[in-house]
Design goal:
mainly beta, Glucose Permease (Domain IIA), Chondroitinase Ac, Chain A, domain 3, 4 domains, about 40% strand
Amino acid sequence: MKKFLAVICLQMLSCFLYAQLFPKRDYPSNYFRYPLNIPLRLNANFGEMRPNHFHMGLDLFTERRENLPVYAPADGWVSKLRIDPSGFGNAIYLSHPNGYTTLYAHMNSFAVFMESALEEGQYANESWKGDVDFDKNMLKVKKGDFIGYSGNTGASAGPHVHYEIRRTDDDACVNPLFFHPVDDNTPPVITKIAIYDRNKSTYEQTPKIISPVKAGGEYIIQGNVLNVSSRRISLAIVATDAITGVPNQNGIYEAVAYLDDIPVSGFQMDGISYQQTRYLNAHIDYRLHSTTGSYFQHLTPLPGDRLPIYYKKEDGVLELEKDEHQLRIEVKDPNGNTSVFQCTLRVDNSLEINTNPGKDSRFMLPNQVNVFENEDLQFFSSDRAFYDAFRFVYQSKPYASGMSRIHVLHNQSIPVHDSLIIRIKANKILNQKQAERVVMIREGKGKKDIRKTNMAKNWYEAKFRDFGEFRLEIDEQPPVITLTGISEGAIVTKGQTITCTVNDNLQKIYRFRAEIDGYWVMFTGTGPVFRYRIDEHCPAGNHMLKIIAEDVAGNTTTKEISFRRE
């Protein structure tokens, strides 16, 4: 009887501890209706891994079709409309009196009353892309009102609606599945587990990786014993989740590591803001992802990880005070479906986790300013730039046709959070006009980034958010503007399209502006092609079209054409 009571007390203690792991959610139930008139089915869920960011909402399945009607989930008002061709595409923000904002991205079009307000705002801002904000009394909606048609605009891989729910006061995204629950009894799948020696930086080792198998309702390993070399370890997992009846493999909601039935560290996907989403690069083993493509999610945050999603006992590191401990990892979805991995952890001092120290250089550390200097290069990081320590490696090589040597700053297996300030010394003295046209170029993994520089004496400075190969170039070639659909003295009619193509030697347009008779007119596009459809902003009569294009270096081209609209 006493043994039975002891077991019950231990179970109650475990439940009490579990209840305290993460902040209590107090989300309103039955407040929001589903924004589509078809059954809820997901292409992607909240918290999935993406390059440099988390997926911050749900991708709603639209039957592989565009132009499904989308409806307001509750009373509220249009607080913002966004045109973001490289991201959200056409997006609607609805604010609601209960303190939440809902977002609908990749839309094809908006309701008519929004379209007219959007155009008025675009002309007021003199910008086609970007945000147009509205007062709460301007564009009100009622629950069930039509707000627009679904689509495939922006950075979309196929027809769907990207749907988010945010706390209005701090703009943090919360998990929409707690507002729109789904029938699901399918637990997550645990694929791999990585073990790290936390006496060392996670960047300075190759973790031990195991592949558990499911047996008898749990995940296990052969022999049920996991030998480790360190008494301070942390874990990362590869796991996926699926909704019953839907084949898509989605991200997981929660994972927690228990040592001898005591929770030590874990995370829960909820309450992440866009200011925090780049910390995904700390949440995953970035080096492993860059080489294998797998997303290993850390259960214990790295020293420079400032995400609010974690539970951790002290620093979250598993302290192995005895030679044997019982390890349990629980992985859950929002419905509480749970998968469990269990084994015995055994400390074996004869083992050694492989390390990868790299070339002898200096350590860069998280949570502090880091500096590297030599006679040709300087770089500075903020205290938020790095997530864990690493041995920084530098080399340089000549570049005959450039303004400087090529400076190789480490490699792109180490993520950078905040921008690095890079200063490079030019290999020749330039006059003032030439100095104003110097750009810094970063190359790595087939990608090229170009920044205009600021000059101090013979040093040229720019900011970047990745390591790679850096050099200076001087760019004195202005963009080339080509117009089609119009020519000098042409006669045009309403609805006719004018196309402007802007080509640049570095293929980077910084600014594009079009005016008719000195007033901004809305050409759409992000370059090199921009289009304008003759509308009421170009009334009948004689006009002057003026196009201004500027590249990153500051070279500017202006083209003017006189025409008449019938």
